[in-house]
DNA sequence: CGTATTGCTACGATAAATGTAGCACAGGAA
DNA sequence: TTCCTGTGCTACATTTATCGTAGCAATACG
C-alpha cells in the first residue's frame, strides 16, 4: 500500500504527519469503523449481535475493526463477553453524534436528486472543458 | 460486493435501511473521504493540490471520492477550476470539526501505547478463553 | 508553435473486503 | 458424562477496492 507500514507505527494510513487528527480520520475512514461505533452507541453487543446490526458484514473485517478499535482504546470486550464502548469511545461517539441530525437535514435538502439514481445520468451538460 | 449496487440507488454500502445516517456513515467510511473534506475545510484546492495534501493518494480513488462527494452535494467544482465545499459540505465539515479537539485529547490519553507499535506484539496475555 | 497547467482516465499490480465454513471454549440442560 | 447452544475468533478462496504509473484532451500563457 505504500502508505503506512513504513516500519513501525503501522498506525494509520496516510497519517504519519504526526497530527493525531490524521490518524483518527484514517482509523474512522475504514470500512465499518464508523458503523461499529454507531451500533455500539447505546448498549454493548455480542460479536454476533454486532454482526447482525452491521448488515451481516463478514466477521473477518468486523474482527479486524474491533481489534483496531480496541487498540485505539475506543472499544473493550467486557469480561462477561460482548463489545462495548470505553468512556473514551463513548466520548468519541458523542463527538460525531451531530452527524445524525445532519444526515436528516441532508436527506431533505439534497440540492438535486443526487446520490441515488444511475451513476450520473445526463441531466447537466458537461461542466467546463 | 453484495452490498450496494442492488439496482438503483447504488447509494452507499450497508445502508439501504432508509436511514440517512447509514448512508452518511457509509459514504464517510470510504477511503480518503474524511480526509478530503478535511483538506478542503478552509479553502478550495485544485485536484492536484488536493492530491498533494492527501499524501499523494492515487488520482483514481481521489477522483472517485470527489465524484461521490459531488453527487452527495458536499463538494463542487467551481467554475474557475478547483474543488471546494458547498454550503452543505461546509456544514458537514463543521459537524465533525470537534473531532479535531477529540483527536488531541485522544493522543494524550491513550490508555496504553496503542495504535502505534507492532501489530499487537505480546505485551498482554490472551484475553479470556 | 512550445510549455505548463487543469480535470480526468486506463490499466496492471497489490491490498483489502466478502462469504462460507469451521474451530475451541464456556455454560446449561438431559 | 453427553448433547446442545452461544460465545469470540480464524482459514481460505473469491471478489472488490485501491494503488501507482502513465497518459489524455482542454485551456492558458508566452
UniProtKB/TrEMBL annotation, chains A, B:
Keyword DNA-binding in annotation: yes
Sequence intervals crossing the membrane: none
Region (Disordered): 107-129
Matches recorded under Pfam families: HxlR
InterPro entries: ArsR-like_HTH, HTH_HxlR, WH-like_DNA-bd_sf, WH_DNA-bd_sf
Gene3D superfamilies named in the record: Winged helix-like DNA-binding domain superfamily/Winged helix DNA-binding domain
All residue ranges annotated as the HTH hxlR-type domain in the record: 19-111
Record's keyword terms, sorted: DNA-binding, Transcription, Transcription regulation
SUPFAM superfamilies: Winged helix' DNA-binding domain
Residue ranges, compositional bias (Basic and acidic residues): 115-129
Protein name: Helix-turn-helix transcriptional regulator
Species per Swiss-Prot/TrEMBL record: Bradyrhizobium diversitatis
Amino acid at each position: 500500500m505504500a502508505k503506512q507500514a513504513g516500519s513501525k507505527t503501522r498506525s494509520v494510513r496516510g497519517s504519519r504527519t504526526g497530527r493525531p487528527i490524521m490518524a483518527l480520520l484514517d482509523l474512522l475512514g475504514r470500512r465499518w469503523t464508523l458503523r461499529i461505533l454507531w451500533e455500539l452507541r447505546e448498549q454493548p453487543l455480542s460479536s454476533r449481535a454486532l454482526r447482525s446490526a452491521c448488515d451481516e458484514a463478514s466477521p473477518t473485517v468486523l474482527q479486524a475493526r474491533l481489534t483496531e478499535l480496541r487498540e485505539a482504546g475506543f472499544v473493550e470486550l467486557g469480561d462477561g463477553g460482548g463489545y462495548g464502548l470505553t468512556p473514551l469511545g463513548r466520548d468519541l461517539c458523542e463527538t460525531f453524534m451531530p452527524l445524525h441530525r445532519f444526515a436528516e437535514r441532508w436527506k431533505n435538502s439534497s440540492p438535486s436528486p443526487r446520490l441515488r439514481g444511475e451513476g450520473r445520468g445526463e441531466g447537466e451538460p458537461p461542466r467546463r472543458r
